[in-house]
Amino acid sequence: KQRSVMAEHYPDDIEEIDMFLAELLQCKDEIVRKFEELDKVLNERKQVLLGAIASIKERYEKSKEITGKIKKLEESKSSILQSLIKVDNLLDSHTTQQDVLSPLEAEIRKLKVTLETFTNIQISFNEELQLMNLLESYGRIYESTDISYKERVVPHFTLFPSQIFQFSSLYGIAITTDGTVYTADRFQGKIVMLSKDLRNIRLIENQHLKAPYGVCVNKDSLFVTDAIRHSLIKFKLDGTFVKEVGNFGSRNTEFQYPYSLDVSSDNLVFVCDNDNNRVSVFNSNLQWQKAIVNPGLNYPRDVKVKEKVFVLCGDTKIFIFSKSLKLVKILKSLCNFVKNPFWFCIDNNENFLISDRDGGVIKVFSAEGKLDCVLGEKVQENG
After folding, report:
1. C-alpha dihedral over 122, 124, 127, 129, to 10 degrees?
2. Chain center to CA of 304
């Protein structure tokens, strides 16, 4: 109808009008297709949510069942105590073995039945509790056993926090001498602080935190990099804010996507300044000291400071510097085995444990850069 009206008023432009209308129809078809795709995605997510809701309901019912079993345990304990008191009274009130034997046997038989019930409930309760722990939270932290890398590492500590808190995306970890654990939840913009037994959780939230990435600690301070604010932030160990330096740029006190960091025994803070292709060094008061730059040191992602300074780059090269920051050597062979490294650590023999993000595993290399073994396997995420 509109075309007819426009053709009547603008007969010379009808071809251009037809082309415009054809483009509109194509846009309409594209919009319809996009909506169909979106509808499909939304339906898939709806199913995931429904599955999660069903799981929550199941866990709720399971928790009610466990609560009932705990109550039965308490009743069983009470029954045992009462039976023991009766046995005690019988022994006190009877003088001959003949008089005491019959009622005593009856009480002992009752006591045995109660103990068996108590044991069965306790075994069942422990099994249910293990199941609940497995279902309780998506947040998990593994602390591996201290065994040879040659053996398969089985976590001996798995955290399923009882608090209602789900980790979003953990991007760094540091542990104090007393065992307190700090880790950065990048997407939620918080620092997660956990007790030594990984059971008590406290969140450090601050206006200076938007996308915390790396964390490290010394005896009295917590240092954090923020990849959105392009800054280095200092806190006290209790989470009290102290100081922030940096913004986006390439000058000495500026960063372009600072990633991991580490603090040396003499309290120098080494920061991977990723897009500036350098490692910036600050003192504990966040005053700039120097920068590590070197040809080929591209996109540094992680740094570890021991007797030497080790820098892991995005192309999987490891640069090794002396304490005076002179280049000692470059390990290049690792790139044949790890395509997307993000973090690494070093043991006392200078073996390197590197996280292979794409592979979902940890790969262990000797001090010479030879692949020793692979730890773990990639977890398939549902939904």
Report:
1. -70
2. 20
Claim: this prediction has a pTM higher than 0.90:
no
Between 3 and 309, the more confident residue is 309
CA distance 214 to 216: 7
Name the CA dihedral angle for 49, 50, 56, 59, rounded to a multiple of 10 degrees.
-140
Token reading at 108: 């002992």
CA distances from 80 to 75, 110, 116 (A): 9, 9, 11
Residues 108-167: tens digit of each pLDDT = 666 656 655 555 555 445 544 444 444 443 333 333 333 344 443 333 333 434 344 566
Output 197 or 242, whichever has higher pLDDT.
242
Closest CA to 309 of 341, 338, 269, 337: 269
Residue with tokens 């069965």: 120
Rg, Å, the chain Cα set: 32
CA 73 to chain centre: 35
